[in-house]
Structures are given as C-alpha cells and as structure tokens.
C-alpha cells in the first residue's frame, strides 16, 4: 500500500511539472554557449528550444546539451501544444520542451546529448527526430540526488509512429 502511495505521489508531481511547463508567454532570448566538456564529431549544431518561461528543468537540459557543444536559443510560444502538433509530435511522445535544429529535426524532452549526436550523425530518412516522453527522474535536467528511472528514447517517424532508438538503464548511459 505504501508503494502505491509513493508512486501516486511521484506521478502527481510529474503531472504538475508538465502542466506548469505548458503555461507560456511570447519571449525570445538566447543562452550563452557553455564550455565544451565532451568530444563531439558534429559541427556546432544550433537548436531553438521551445519551452515555458516557468520550467526550470528545461533550462537544466539546455545546460547539459550546451556542455556537449550544442548552441541553443529559447522561445516561449503562446501555445506550446499547437507547436508540437505542427511539428508532428504525437501526444504520447511529448514532454515539457521541444528543440528544433536548423535542419528541422525535433528533439522532444530530456534526451541525453550523446543520443542527439548519434542521431544527427546518421538520421534515418523517414524520421523527424527523437523523443523522451514525460520527464524521467535522473534524465538530463531531471536530476534528483542519486535517483534514476530507466527510460526509452523513441525515434519519431514522419508518418506518426515510433520505434525504440535506445534504452537508458543507468545514469552512466546518458
């Protein structure tokens, strides 16, 4: 019974976080590129990150990808859900933020930089990008002490389906 209450509390907290990230205003700003701490094989990739101005985990995720050499800019659209509809991101694949590269690839949610790099090195012809649905505890930007919840990264396809691109079973696989 205690485990059910704990799980219910965690799910309720995640719902509140996601809903808080849906409240948006129109503001555009840029973030400063962080020092590169990873060796990357791609040229600097710029991403526009669409998020709510009240969502701190999105900013933490941006810090993570900037540390891997990506450049980001922020936009706070009035209707984040409508933007995700327009980009072809199904509701079951959504999270609190959406990043879009200059080439139009979408990266939905708390995807580790290494998997974005892997995707961009050889994007499948029928894909639009990657997604980590929800907000898994321990994923980049969602760190909570030493807690970690295994999660899957989905390859989003143009016709609306997906397949598993990777399964992240530990913090070390990020």
Walkthrough of the structure:
The protein is of the alpha+beta class and 174 residues long. It has one domain (2-173). The chain is 29% helix and 24% strand. The protein is built from 4 helices and 8 strands. The chain has helices at 2-22, 56-67, 80-87, 113-121, and strands at residues 28-30, 46-50, 71-75, 98-101, 106-109, 127-132, 151-157, 162-168. An 8-stranded mixed β-sheet has the order 1-3-2-4-5-6-7-8, with helices on both faces. β7 (151-157) and β8 form a beta hairpin. The chain is globular. Residues 3-42 have low confidence and may be disordered.
- pLDDT < 50 stretches: 3-42
**β-strand amount:** 15-25%
Structural category? alpha+beta
Q: From the alpha-carbon coordinates, what is the Rg to the nearest angstrom?
A: 15 Å
Kindly state the percentage of residues in helix: 25-40%
For the terminal residues, how far apart are their CA atoms? Answer: 33 Å
How many separate domains? 1
Coarse morphology: globular
